[in-house]
Design a protein that fits this description.
The protein has 15 helices and 10 strands. The chain is of the alpha+beta class and about 400 residues long. Strand 9 and strand 10 form a beta hairpin.
Length: about 400
């Protein structure tokens, strides 16, 4: 890789440009555009994410200070705050949503053999949502509560590599369980969910799709025990009961007419009793409990991107601008994950982002910079920070 080019330019070499052009063409993003293309917008917003810029004016001044380096970074349009604000407001956010999905498909292939703590052949997904708070007076379209605005980020996380396979951005009022209607269910896969997704009609759709689910039961859950399965106390520590059950209640039985498996588990770490429901009758009860514990990876993913990407403060106030920024942030996250795997980098994703943030405009080899990190750099990493891809 040419060390005479900026690190930012070398970073963008990993972007499948032809795929990006297809996404732009699909929504006619560059229709009647003369000077500031969608690619220019993506590069500017990616630069803002990687260098933690605070505002559009901040982006403008930093890029203008780069001078002739802009051309070598691939940016051909004139950089101004108004131009970037206008692009974020009117360019269809679906361009960047579709492109993020293209990057996700690349990343998932790279991380397909990653271990997540439980040895299984099936693909395992964790489904959850997080709220991104917004000021209602500034973002009036994002009404959530009477005096509070928000958008909700629904994520289906592939636990092999912590790669989001599906992200849906909705208004804060949208209930999490509605996202189950948008899932393209993969036969044989396991979907892990919290009890907020407990809807037996929607869970039965997973059942009829030859997929499996693991979900927490609610406290008022009514059932009839059919029989109990034997428990090996030595191998299955914490498992209190493993039962085959039938649902009770007219509408509940109508929504899910088949039997389920109920597992009661005591978590000694948190001193809590947890009850799981699943349609998987083959896996050991201890494995079911371990899989549910792995669901915490999606919580770490939310906390990580909120800490290290610009998705809590926004450069624009329109719905299109907010969604554009979130999708480009996701693209940057996945792009760095791709680079980590393709270059076989030993550093964590956090360390890579920190190094890129200060050396992005340097004309050095990206491989040399990211592979020959001094031990002192690793020691500067805050031990309290959340780390993925260790």
């Amino acid at each position: 890789m040419n060390s005479g080019r900026t690190i930012f330019s070398q970073l963008m070499d990993f972007v499948p440009f032809h795929k990006f052009c297809q996404c732009v063409e699909r929504y006619k993003g560059d229709y009647k555009v003369k000077s500031f293309s969608c690619w220019d917008q993506f590069l500017c917003m990616s630069f803002a994410q990687l260098t933690y810029r605070e505002s559009l004016r901040d982006i403008q001044e930093c890029l203008r200070a780069a001078g002739q380096k802009l051309y070598h970074m691939g940016i051909r349009g004139n950089i101004s705050r108004n131009t970037l604000a206008n692009a974020n407001q009117i360019r269809d956010w679906r361009i960047y949503a579709d492109f993020a999905q293209e990057l996700i498909q690349i990343a998932r292939k790279l991380y397909i053999h990653e271990s997540f703590g439980v040895e299984l052949k099936q693909t395992v997904y964790a489904l959850d949502a997080t709220i991104i708070d917004l000021c209602l007076s500034v973002f009036p379209w994002a009404r959530f509560r009477k005096r509070k605005g928000a958008v909700k980020l629904h994520t289906l996380l592939d636990l092999r590599g912590s790669i989001p396979s599906l992200i849906v951005i909705t208004h804060g009022k949208t209930h999490e369980v509605n996202i189950l209607d948008d899932l393209f269910l993969e036969a044989g896969a396991i979907y892990i969910m919290d009890r907020g997704y407990l809807d037996f009609a929607r869970l039965y759709r997973i059942q009829t799709s030859a997929a499996f689910f693991i979900i927490r039961a609610k406290s008022n859950f009514r059932f009839q025990r059919i029989h109990s399965l034997p428990i090996d106390k030595e191998k299955e520590a914490g498992i209190e009961c493993d039962q085959i059950i039938a649902l009770q209640g007219f509408y509940t039985k109508k929504d899910f007419p088949e039997r389920l498996r109920r597992i009661r588990y005591f978590d000694a770490t948190t001193n809590r009793h947890l009850v799981f429901l699943t349609n998987n009758f083959q896996l050991p009860a201890q494995t079911i409990a371990q899989l549910y514990r792995c669901r915490w990876q999606v919580e770490l993913f939310f906390k990580w991107i909120k800490q290290h990407l610009r998705i809590k403060s926004f450069y624009g106030t329109s719905e299109n601008a907010v969604k554009t920024q979130i999708w480009i942030a996701v693209s940057v996250y996945v792009l760095v994950a791709i680079i980590k795997k393709q270059l076989n980098l030993p550093a964590s994703l956090y360390t890579i982002l920190q190094i890129l943030s200060i050396l992005l405009l340097e004309k050095k080899s990206i491989i040399q910079v990211l592979t020959n990190l001094n031990d002192a750099i690793g020691d500067t990493e805050d031990c309290n920070q959340l780390n993925l891809f260790n």
